[in-house]
Design goal:
The protein is α+β, with helices and mostly antiparallel strands. The chain is built from 7 helices and 15 strands. A 6-stranded mixed β-sheet has the order 6-9-4-3-11-14. Strands 10-15-12-13 form a 4-stranded antiparallel β-sheet, with no helix packed on it. A 3-stranded antiparallel β-sheet has the order 5-8-7, with helices on one face.
């Protein structure tokens, strides 16, 4: 009889929430102590036939279940591995075009976890590509967010002063030794004056700037090489430069699955906004598909908490008048 969700081990529950799929599958197999040939037998008993090689490729991230038969196998795997319903299938996301039929296995090779490229979440996209080209290495830095607490502070002049992050990440391939932090200033920001702070369990690497796009891309070097599944906590931040106009929003882009994100905005007592909202959208300039009013607390702060995020833009906006 399948276990209820509360029986899932904490580590397994976390990776089922944050993904990626292949790491969640491998963690579930380890937690249940089942060899692949035994899993294959359990599937066959339920009328699902999948080769041991395919199962191995799925848990390594070398292939991604795409065909209808493969997706059915994943649903049955949830039963075999005593996982909550849809806990693995949700990590696969939508099926890709053209994956429903054809010769061969039909499942897609996926050398890295499926993510949206940075250029989809930051405008102008060409500027993002240009900065990435100056920092050789995989476009996907090989980690995804387990938990992220971010704080921003606004001054009496209504401008963003600083951003601070406590960021826990998990590697989804071996050999990860860096994280790319991207900052986009408000209109009129002089990015040459933006300061990058690498404060905990990391050190600054190469930093690239694009004045016309108001972008700063900082390579944060980790103090060790991560293996697949390992986590790392790093602290870093940005000190902004004065701009000609007041700031009116802060947006965070997520290019892959995220476990939990917390954002707090603190306002100076001499310059409090009249209203604040949290919002989520799919792309820069897109109409928000989610919006909710936030109330300032006694410490002149608003905050949001989000869990189980997919790729998106999430942020807080405020009105001064």
């Amino acid at each position: 009889m399948p276990r209820s969700p509360h029986a899932v081990q904490p580590e397994l529950a976390t990776v089922l929430r944050t993904g990626p799929f292949h790491l969640a599958l491998r963690t579930a197999l380890t937690a249940r102590g089942l060899a692949l040939h035994r899993v294959q037998q359990h599937l066959a008993q339920r009328g699902v036939h999948v080769g041991v090689t395919s199962l191995s490729y799925w848990q390594q991230g070398r292939r991604r279940p795409e065909r209808a038969e493969s997706l059915r196998a994943v649903r049955v795997l949830e039963e075999v591995l005593e996982l909550p319903a849809h806990s693995l299938t949700r990590l696969l996301g939508p099926r890709r075009a053209g994956s429903g039929s054809g010769s061969g296995s039909g499942d897609e090779f996926t050398p890295t976890v499926a993510t949206r490229p940075y250029r989809d979440l930051i405008a102008p996209a060409d500027a993002v590509d240009g900065l990435l080209a100056e920092l050789p290495g995989p476009r996907d830095t090989g980690v995804h967010t387990v938990a992220h607490i971010e704080r921003i502070r606004l001054g009496a002049d209504r401008q963003l002063l600083r951003r601070d992050s406590q960021h826990a990440v998990r590697a989804h391939r071996d050999g990860i030794d860096r994280y790319l932090a991207i900052y986009q200033g408000d209109p009129g920001c002089d990015v040459s004056r933006v300061r990058v702070r690498a404060e905990e369990n990391c050190r600054p690497g190469r930093i690239r700037r694009d004045q016309s796009a108001r972008l700063v891309m900082a390579e944060l070097l980790l103090d060790r090489r991560l293996r697949t599944g390992e986590t790392h906590l790093l602290g870093y931040g940005f000190d902004d430069a004065p701009t000609p106009t007041p700031s009116n929003e802060y947006v965070r882009g997520f290019n892959s699955g995220t476990g939990q994100y917390v954002l707090q905005a603190t306002f100076d007592p001499a310059a409090l906004p009249v209203r604040c909202h949290r919002f989520a959208s799919s792309a820069p300039g897109a109409v928000p598909y989610e919006s909710e009013e936030l109330t300032l607390d006694g410490h002149h702060c608003v905050h949001l908490v989000a869990t189980g995020l997919g790729p998106c833009l999430l942020g807080v906006s405020w009105d001064w008048d």
